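Lab notebook, bench 4. The sequencing result for the construct came back, and we need a structural model before the next group meeting so we can plan mutations. Quick request posted to the team channel:

Model the 3D structure of this chain.
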Amino acid sequence: MPTSKVQFTEWYARQGPAMKVLVVLGGGAMCAAGGVVAAPLLGAAASAVGLGVGGGALSGAAASSAGLAALGGGSVASGGLGVVGGTVVIASASAAAGAGSAAYASRTLTHDGRRTASGARRARATSVSDGEISFE
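Done. Here's the predicted structure in token form:
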């Protein structure tokens, strides 16, 4: 198992597309879970800025539910998806952001790993003449 950042980036650069897809999906899944956990807080914030019933007059669980229902397209009774819909909207946005971040990180690690490995190959191929110091 790689023990340093250089070793990890070189290792990751050698991985196939399946591993890189798993990294992106894992990043999206972790952020979606975070979005589900943060949904009540974000619903309350949405209610505080005027979304939902009451337009900022509610607090606590009522504000959270009103905000999430507004994000979900309205209450179930009015034809929207309600609190569940709002939670899905937040989780989906979080998953998209997480997957995008993981894809960017994956691309960066692959590029850095290839560059580091290429530099190491060039350094090993360089001959050292007498009197020069060589680190192996």
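The longest helix spans residues 82-125.
Will bring this to the meeting.
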